[in-house]
Inverse folding.
């Protein structure tokens, strides 16, 4: 296995008496899809927050690209190549689809948004935006106001914004949440095209999607990793069945 792109070393995080992350160690290597699953309240989003820099661990270390990043804020981690998509898409609703991806590119290449007024006339910026939109199938809606997109399209746009930031790792927090069957199938197909192009840490409740997409699966229960390994191995694990998947998971 390749050297880790992302490495979590014994992360722990508490809010008062509630321990939401309990001595978690985990790696993601370049090009793999590593899925993180577990019941509601297991601490998955809190763990993602510690990776992205929105939360600081009480103990342990986050390493990205073989360097410690605990002291780095969100934007600094993003510039190193770490992009996050949220359970609820975070977009600039009054701006066009194209403008949203252009902002992501400006954030990557400049110290602020002072050049936004020149974005429409910046051919390189426009081309980068369109490449990102084409990769998620939204290039024909580049001029549409992002608030008018469907929920599934908003999720696609957030992924395009992530691509525009030139990431090496995508943190995807429940990309199928709230999608109907058609949009879910489209998102799964899109995620499948990303395999090998990016390292992905995928948090998702759709177990069937997880086991069809992931190279490795880790199971988080009450803040602790109780199993980690190839999908078939994790799906057959008695402890995982009892804690999360249920007995039917092994009856394929």
């Amino acid at each position: 296995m390749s050297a880790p792109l992302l490495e979590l070393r014994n992360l722990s995080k508490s809010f008062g008496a509630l321990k939401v992350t309990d001595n978690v160690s985990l790696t993601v290597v370049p090009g793999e899809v590593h899925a993180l699953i577990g019941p509601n309240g297991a601490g998955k989003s809190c763990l993602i927050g510690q990776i992205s820099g929105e939360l600081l661990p009480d103990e342990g270390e986050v390493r990205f690209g073989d360097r410690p990043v605990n002291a780095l804020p969100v934007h600094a981690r993003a510039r190193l190549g770490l992009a996050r998509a949220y359970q609820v898409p975070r977009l600039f609703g009054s701006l066009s689809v194209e403008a949203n991806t252009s902002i992501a590119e400006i954030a990557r290449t400049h110290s602020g948004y002072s050049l936004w007024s020149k974005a429409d006339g910046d051919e390189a910026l426009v081309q980068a935006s369109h490449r990102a939109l084409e990769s998620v199938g939204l290039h024909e809606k580049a001029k549409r106001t992002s608030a008018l997109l469907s929920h599934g399209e908003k999720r696609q746009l957030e992924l395009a914004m992530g691509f525009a930031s030139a990431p090496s790792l995508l943190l995807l927090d429940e990309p199928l949440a709230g999608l109907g069957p058609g949009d879910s199938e489209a998102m799964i197909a899109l995620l499948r095209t990303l395999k090998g192009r990016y390292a992905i840490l995928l948090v998702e409740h759709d177990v069937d999607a997880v086991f069809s997409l992931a190279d490795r699966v880790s199971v988080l229960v009450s803040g602790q990793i109780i199993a980690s390994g190839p999908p078939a191995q994790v799906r057959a694990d008695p402890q995982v069945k009892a804690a999360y998947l249920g007995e039917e998971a092994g009856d394929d």
Q: What stands out?
A: Confidence is low (pLDDT under 50) at residues 111-116, 247-252. Residues 90-166 form one domain.
